[in-house]
């Protein structure tokens, strides 16, 4: 039995706009900030139930990532720092859409279906990004949590991956690290400096990187972290929110979609630059080659660099661990080919959305996953991690032990809970230093096939259903055949369509031997969608 009296009282202060229907999508709820107050309150409620059911801390992150400043959103973080379990996404949707008088019965229903022990203690960890609306919305989450008599800690301004890290730390009794933002800085800084200390090459140790912080939380947190990073890495943080607007003409999404640098970021030739997104869970690199050409190093290039490095380490420690790379349909064909044919690493394709990639990557000893848009990380199985840590401690062969130590430092530097722009950046910087690679050499590992993404407005995007990890359309009838015919007309070509999970559009992707052909194919496919 649960007392919903104070829920009823408080929910009146967080009432739902009439007629509003929202869905817990690929990245939680997301819409204009002014429509979200009731959703936040109710997600506070849901987090309490999930916490009681899991007997663990649950996270609630208030952010709309790369979307405009006027938007906001919320996502729940499960005990080990993963995304909320799919069955609960449905509860989230029902709860968000319930009428005032239905809230208690929706809660009671969840309690019953999920056998929630209502007497269990609950704890919710709350974080938010730098949006103007976020503070007030986080308070609405707190109201939801306290109306069910549960405890919480408001971690205030944090990146999404920092909150995931904190949740995981709290639920593993500190084994993963100390459950504070400072604990995060210390863990990553130590791993980074230990890792680069192992540099044997004569490569320059004074390095710098230009970071576009998307005028968001990532810039703020990176600046805080600089204080802990006492190494030769110099960070020029731009778009740090001092004057620019969040995600406006900057950030990872802008750079990836526009395939150009943020205006005002003046790149010296060959200088390494990177962009975070608005909540710092995505990163892309880029540079200017001196002849004025812009080069983008996206999630696929990052996955390739990281898996090359890990594969070399595996050879050095002489362990037979199973490594795989997980991508989505958006992965550039050249990257998949390079990974499979040259590196001989198995590659798997999942549906778009971090939770799908993360889930697949958990099947391997080492699962490297990245979306082309720059969201990704590496997962290590418990036993692989343990084996490597033991080797780093006890191996008698000095060379092998050093390699194992390098491996262990690498594991410590990676945020395994979710893609993390700060952690990914430090890992990439360390790898480039250790392998003595310039950004251009990294870029040259393989050459991207020219590609084009388009979005098409249709009356109802749900008429398109896909299969084979979104690479083929099964409905409407005839569409896939048309796409197949079009693809046949170009060399090295590939194309697919899928309904967006975050916008009311159909997305079209095409790649081919030349940019003109990729553009023409994408255009032709988008006409076939109507
Ligand atoms: C969300 C996903 C992202 C995915 C994107 C696709 C998370 C945390 N974020 O932002 O991974 O690439 O949706 O959007 O899962 P789309 O369905 O509109 O193409
Ligand atoms: Zn994001």
TrEMBL record:
<dbReference type="InterPro" id="IPR049022">
    <property type="entry name" value="AMG1_III"/>
</dbReference>
<dbReference type="GO" id="GO:0006048">
    <property type="term" value="P:UDP-N-acetylglucosamine biosynthetic process"/>
</dbReference>
<feature type="domain" description="Phosphoacetylglucosamine mutase AMG1">
    <location>
        <begin position="298"/>
        <end position="436"/>
    </location>
</feature>
<keyword id="KW-0460">Magnesium</keyword>
<dbReference type="Pfam" id="PF21404">
    <property type="entry name" value="AMG1_III"/>
</dbReference>
<comment type="pathway">
    <text>Nucleotide-sugar biosynthesis; UDP-N-acetyl-alpha-D-glucosamine biosynthesis; N-acetyl-alpha-D-glucosamine 1-phosphate from alpha-D-glucosamine 6-phosphate (route I): step 2/2.</text>
</comment>
<dbReference type="InterPro" id="IPR016055">
    <property type="entry name" value="A-D-PHexomutase_a/b/a-I/II/III"/>
</dbReference>
<feature type="domain" description="Phosphoacetylglucosamine mutase AMG1">
    <location>
        <begin position="179"/>
        <end position="284"/>
    </location>
</feature>
<dbReference type="InterPro" id="IPR005843">
    <property type="entry name" value="A-D-PHexomutase_C"/>
</dbReference>
<keyword id="KW-0119">Carbohydrate metabolism</keyword>
<feature type="domain" description="Alpha-D-phosphohexomutase alpha/beta/alpha">
    <location>
        <begin position="103"/>
        <end position="168"/>
    </location>
</feature>
<keyword id="KW-1133">Transmembrane helix</keyword>
<dbReference type="InterPro" id="IPR036900">
    <property type="entry name" value="A-D-PHexomutase_C_sf"/>
</dbReference>
<feature type="binding site">
    <location>
        <begin position="371"/>
        <end position="373"/>
    </location>
    <ligand>
        <name>substrate</name>
    </ligand>
</feature>
<dbReference type="GO" id="GO:0004610">
    <property type="term" value="F:phosphoacetylglucosamine mutase activity"/>
</dbReference>
<feature type="binding site">
    <location>
        <position position="507"/>
    </location>
    <ligand>
        <name>substrate</name>
    </ligand>
</feature>
<feature type="binding site" description="via phosphate group">
    <location>
        <position position="65"/>
    </location>
    <ligand>
        <name>Mg(2+)</name>
    </ligand>
</feature>
<keyword id="KW-0812">Transmembrane</keyword>
<dbReference type="Pfam" id="PF00408">
    <property type="entry name" value="PGM_PMM_IV"/>
</dbReference>
<comment type="function">
    <text>Catalyzes the conversion of GlcNAc-6-P into GlcNAc-1-P during the synthesis of uridine diphosphate/UDP-GlcNAc, a sugar nucleotide critical to multiple glycosylation pathways including protein N- and O-glycosylation.</text>
</comment>
<keyword id="KW-0007">Acetylation</keyword>
<protein>
    <recommendedName>
        <fullName>Phosphoacetylglucosamine mutase</fullName>
        <ecNumber>5.4.2.3</ecNumber>
    </recommendedName>
</protein>
<dbReference type="GO" id="GO:0000287">
    <property type="term" value="F:magnesium ion binding"/>
</dbReference>
<keyword id="KW-0597">Phosphoprotein</keyword>
<feature type="binding site">
    <location>
        <position position="279"/>
    </location>
    <ligand>
        <name>Mg(2+)</name>
    </ligand>
</feature>
<dbReference type="GO" id="GO:0030097">
    <property type="term" value="P:hemopoiesis"/>
</dbReference>
<feature type="domain" description="Alpha-D-phosphohexomutase C-terminal">
    <location>
        <begin position="455"/>
        <end position="526"/>
    </location>
</feature>
<dbReference type="InterPro" id="IPR016066">
    <property type="entry name" value="A-D-PHexomutase_CS"/>
</dbReference>
<dbReference type="InterPro" id="IPR049023">
    <property type="entry name" value="AMG1_II"/>
</dbReference>
<keyword id="KW-0479">Metal-binding</keyword>
<feature type="binding site">
    <location>
        <begin position="498"/>
        <end position="502"/>
    </location>
    <ligand>
        <name>substrate</name>
    </ligand>
</feature>
<keyword id="KW-0413">Isomerase</keyword>
<feature type="domain" description="Alpha-D-phosphohexomutase alpha/beta/alpha">
    <location>
        <begin position="54"/>
        <end position="97"/>
    </location>
</feature>
<feature type="active site" description="Phosphoserine intermediate">
    <location>
        <position position="65"/>
    </location>
</feature>
<dbReference type="Pfam" id="PF21405">
    <property type="entry name" value="AMG1_II"/>
</dbReference>
<comment type="similarity">
    <text>Belongs to the phosphohexose mutase family.</text>
</comment>
<feature type="binding site">
    <location>
        <position position="281"/>
    </location>
    <ligand>
        <name>Mg(2+)</name>
    </ligand>
</feature>
<keyword id="KW-0472">Membrane</keyword>
<dbReference type="GO" id="GO:0005975">
    <property type="term" value="P:carbohydrate metabolic process"/>
</dbReference>
<dbReference type="Pfam" id="PF02878">
    <property type="entry name" value="PGM_PMM_I"/>
</dbReference>
<feature type="binding site">
    <location>
        <position position="277"/>
    </location>
    <ligand>
        <name>Mg(2+)</name>
    </ligand>
</feature>
<dbReference type="InterPro" id="IPR016657">
    <property type="entry name" value="PAGM"/>
</dbReference>
């Amino acid at each position: 039995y649960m007392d919903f009296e104070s829920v009823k009282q408080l929910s009146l202060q967080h009432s739902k706009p009439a007629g509003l229907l929202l869905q817990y999508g690929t990245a939680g709820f997301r819409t204009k900030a002014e429509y979200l107050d009731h959703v936040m309150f109710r997600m506070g409620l849901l987090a309490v139930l999930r916490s009681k059911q899991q007997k663990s801390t649950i996270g609630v992150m208030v952010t709309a990532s790369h979307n405009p400043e006027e938007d906001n959103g919320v996502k729940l973080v499960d005990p080990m720092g993963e995304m909320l379990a799919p069955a609960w996404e449905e509860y989230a949707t029902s709860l968000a859409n319930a009428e005032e008088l239905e809230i208690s019965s929706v809660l009671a229903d969840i309690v019953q279906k999920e056998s929630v022990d209502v007497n269990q203690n609950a704890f919710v960890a709350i974080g938010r990004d730098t949006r103007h609306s976020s503070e007030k919305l986080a308070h609405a989450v707190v109201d939801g949590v306290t109306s069910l008599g549960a405890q919480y800690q408001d971690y205030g301004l944090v990146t999404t991956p920092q909150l995931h890290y904190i949740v995981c730390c709290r639920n593993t009794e500190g084994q993963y690290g100390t459950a504070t933002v400072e604990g995060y800085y210390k863990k990553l800084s130590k791993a980074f400096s230990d890792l680069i200390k192992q540099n044997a090459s004569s490569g320059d140790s004074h390095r710098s990187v230009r970071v576009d912080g998307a005028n968001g939380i990532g810039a703020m947190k990176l600046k805080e972290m600089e204080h802990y990073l006492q190494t030769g890495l110099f960070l020029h943080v731009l778009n740090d929110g001092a004057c620019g607007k969040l995600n406006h003409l900057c950030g990872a999404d802008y750079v990836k979609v526009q395939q150009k640098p943020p205006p005002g970021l003046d790149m010296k030739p060959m200088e390494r630059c990177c962009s975070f997104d608005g909540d710092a869970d995505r990163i892309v690199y880029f540079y200017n080659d001196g002849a004025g050409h812009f080069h983008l190093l996206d999630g696929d290039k990052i996955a390739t660099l990281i898996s090359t490095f890990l594969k070399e380490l595996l050879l050095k420690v002489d362990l037979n661990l199973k490594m795989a790379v997980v991508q989505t349909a958006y992965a550039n064909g050249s990257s998949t080919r390079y990974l499979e044919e040259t590196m001989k690493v198995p590659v798997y394709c999942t549906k778009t959305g971090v939770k799908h990639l993360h889930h697949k990557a958990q099947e391997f000893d080492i699962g490297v996953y990245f979306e082309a848009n720059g969201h990704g990380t590496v997962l290590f199985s418990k036993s692989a991690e343990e084996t490597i840590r033991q080797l780093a401690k006890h191996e008698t062969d000095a060379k092998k032990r050093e390699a194992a130590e390098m491996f262990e430092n690498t594991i410590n530097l990676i945020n395994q809970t979710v893609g993390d722009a700060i952690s990914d950046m430090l890992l990439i910087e360390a790898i480039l230093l250790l392998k003595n690679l310039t950004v251009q050499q990294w870029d040259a590992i393989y050459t991207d096939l020219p590609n084009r993404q388009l979005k098409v407005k249709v009356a109802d995007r749900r008429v398109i259903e896909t299969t084979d990890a979104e690479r083929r359309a099964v409905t409407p009838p005839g569409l896939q055949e048309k796409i197949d015919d079009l693809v046949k007309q170009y060399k090295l070509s590939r194309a697919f369509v899928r309904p967006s999970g975050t916008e009311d559009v159909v997305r079209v992707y095409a790649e081919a031997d030349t940019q003109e052909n990729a553009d023409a194919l994408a255009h032709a496919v988008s006409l076939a969608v109507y």
